[in-house]
From TrEMBL, chains A, B, C, D:
Pfam families xrefs: Abhydrolase_1
InterPro entries for this protein: AB_hydrolase_1, AB_hydrolase_fold, AB_hydrolase_sf
The organism of origin for this protein: Firmicutes bacterium enrichment culture clone fosmid MGS-M2
Protein name, UniProt field: Carboxylesterase
Gene Ontology CC entries for this record: membrane
Database matches in PANTHER family: HYDROLASE, PUTATIVE (AFU_ORTHOLOGUE AFUA_2G14860)-RELATED (PTHR43798:SF33), MONOACYLGLYCEROL LIPASE (PTHR43798)
Length: 276, 276, 276, 276
């Protein structure tokens, strides 16, 4: 466990593997409710051939909160400064949802610092529809009712198929999450994080992003639906797209083997230029 | 405007056209938040070659509320008694969402009273997933916060594409609906209606339903997703299925021309037996 | 049975219902291998509230052949002249595949003569891919091998699901069609019809077509796949789109009830302007 | 270049990397028209962390032909004997189309010899529909017309989107392939290979196959459409499924980066058991 102090705030991060100048680094950018811990089950595979960097963004997990409201730009700057602090000149980046929107903004702003990226369950721009959904989350968060917050967020994060098939697991998650969702601190973090994503918009940047990109869609993703990733694929210069049937927004949890395969296999290719 | 008194409650209904023994009747079964009024724009077309019967179920629109909790069975019985009261021996039934689940239950219980049916945006059984979504709606309804209730329900009822394209219309709906959603009476009705749908389950009935059926799916339906209607089509004896691209749960509002075409065209065929 | 003599050729047509100045007419435009007879099972429903006009285009069914090669323009002109000959100032047009491409070209060229249209399983432009498929058909047609022609065309016209489920019916069709497909006359007609579709291209016309349009896609259409109709819907001014799951290119045969519902219901609406 | 003599026939194979008892081996099973050479562009990546074994099955590439007709069982036995000959006790197997059906049969028959598999663009059973398509191929193959054979096979192997976008590349392929498709030897091989796949059927085996499996679907696959792979995924014990939008049957050629990512990433995971 390590702390990077940035703008007088503590940023929690973990490194698996030995970081040096020749390391082929994978950085994970969490989804909005996630943290470094969410990826524990993935570490063994992700760090087999790569050095793995996980960290909590502002208002996530064990990193400091930011009291005033902000946009995702501060998360982009945090990533840049964290990489520089660790001496990582260029990294492979995998992000899901909130984390993937940071990845897209980072690729637009600091293209030389990103080697390849895998972005899952993400949009090019927060639509009025998605903004209203976020507003609903935040209005409920303000009430402090953790059970209500659970019920208006979590079902939309998993596919109905997974939710029904793994109902026992979901019930255990409910027991685990409702107490957390009932704490003022967590809800205030969620309110600020949700708000920060409202202005996400890389529409104009897409045609300039040359980073080799693999995009992951889930066919039952009801927050960032597949048509959004088709848009990304059509407007990025160098992107391929895969889609996961019967899978919801939290693709990493529903199909961990496939998610890992895509990440390891995309970052692990020596070259991406096939002369067929 | 007419009132049918049933179990000492007032049931509001409207008939367009002249009802007699030879009438080819279409009955509309509302979605959960809808009422007789929701269909005003459809009346001219629906009543052109048919007699049209619209009504508000218990706890809908101008019909009486029911204080204690109940299951959808009382809505099924209401429909049966209303038809008998009006001397309608057999009717074509079109239902959407909540109304379509009543249609399925009615077809299972009173098969001779239903000629054909069009069921849109509906499931065979309320899954644990859908139940939890309903619970979330109800927990927010209890708080009385109309804006929160709007934001946690309406975005999931329209497709993101429609919501974004018709943002002005959605904003006007918000102005219209938030005051309604802020009244205790409406929210208590919604709580009971939502609760009544929890036990909906026609899985075992499907193979016995012989009613000629047309099923409507919407590709961006995030409450009753397309795989649910595929299940229905595979398990009903006599059903065809259509799907609407870029359309959400409220298919009647998003594609009124197509919705009407399917209803009129399916009920209007003299015979359904094609010798190709 | 009636004959319209046009450019010294015989054009076969049939009218169901009594044609007069107030008739609300439906005209059917056949797919490439079809003829007036293909629609016999649909006549009762299609002529219930409308006057129905069916006809065979040049090189189809009982109409004359054209020896030299031609483009679809002659079919568009034929339709215009046939309508004028019959005194039909404006008609509803339903076309499938080849017939639907004629409908689109007709709507672009003679907009006042078309009231509404339903176009099924059609493209805006014959792509290099579709052209090569047509070339394959024609190369086999030249050999005169009717069984080969059957096997390289018919399986792509039905969905695998339908083909497998109705294998007996398909086998009967094979017995019926292979002798026909083995005649030089039929194959030469097919060669010319196929060739005439190569230059189909209404891409530039689409934004100017204001005809109220309903587009039918089939999810297992392997000749004019769903993305082609999405393109049409996005570029036409006034079009809605429905998609049929588990259905192939010959949607009228696979889902006759749904196909008829869409046609009758779309043409039967008094007005198409819904004030929701 | 190496030759394995099996049943007095020559089997051509290539190994990249140094094979020993600890090697983690990937074996490639070709699609029907493919050969060892088809994978040249993939060798660098596939052999980075694995020993790569490619070979031509009977009637493929540089391996011997078999004059009499046969079923796919001989290809399954060939694979088993080749692995034993090379001292490979267990291998990761990746197969596409014809090769993937061999992989499924092999997993059913010799489960201990297969560690994991990636199967792309494959069916559980050759349906009457697919059989008729194969019959069409073979009837044209008998005529010896290479151009016709090209046009009735190749367009269905690529997606219309790829075919149109890479029209120049397709034209070059046509120049390359038509002469090959015009040789009696090649066509006779194709006839036998196609015929051998007619009896492919692992429906009853699927529930017993425990091999960890990743299945690849292409959304525009018109020979082995996505519903076929959904069937596989639902009936295998341990399989995940990904789908590639805008991609046709030859997924390895259309999206080589994604195809490689899935293969390398699935075989490269140390363990596949995620405790989420």
């Amino acid at each position: 466990m390590s702390i990077f102090t940035y703008q007088e705030k503590d940023i929690y991060y973990e490194i698996d593997g030995t970081l040096d100048i020749n390391s082929d680094v994978i950085v994970i950018l969490n989804g909005i409710m996630m943290s470094t811990k969410s990826w524990d089950a993935f570490v063994e595979n992700f760090s087999k051939n790569h050095v793995l960097l996980r960290y909590d963004m502002f208002d996530q997990g064990q990193s400091s909160k930011i009291e005033e409201s902000y946009t995702q730009t501060i998360q982009v700057e945090l990533l840049k400064n964290l990489l520089e602090h660790l001496g990582i000149a260029q990294a492979n980046i995998v992000g899901i949802s909130y984390g993937a929107s940071i990845a897209l903004q980072f690729a637009a702003k600091y293209p030389t610092m990103i080697k390849r990226m895998v972005v899952a369950n993400v949009v090019a721009k927060t639509s009025p529809w998605l903004k209203d959904i976020g507003d609903g989350w935040n209005e409920v968060a303000k009430t402090g009712n953790g059970l209500a917050y659970y019920h208006i967020t979590i079902p939309y994060i998993y596919s109905p198929q997974f939710y029904t098939l793994h109902n026992d697991w979901m019930e255990k998650r409910k027991e685990l999450l409702v107490p957390l969702f009932s704490t003022r601190t967590f809800l205030d973090r969620m309110i600020r994080l949700t708000k920060s994503a409202e202005t996400h918009d890389v529409i104009k940047d897409l045609p300039n992003i040359k980073t080799p990109t693999l995009i992951i869609s889930s066919e039952e993703d009801y927050l960032t639906p597949p048509f959004e990733q088709k848009y990304l694929q059509e407007h990025l210069q160098n992107a391929e797209l895969v889609s996961i049937p019967n899978c919801g927004h939290a693709s990493m949890y529903e199909v961990p083997k496939t998610f890992t395969a895509l990440v390891l296999g995309f970052f692990g290719q020596t070259k991406l230029d096939y002369q067929i």
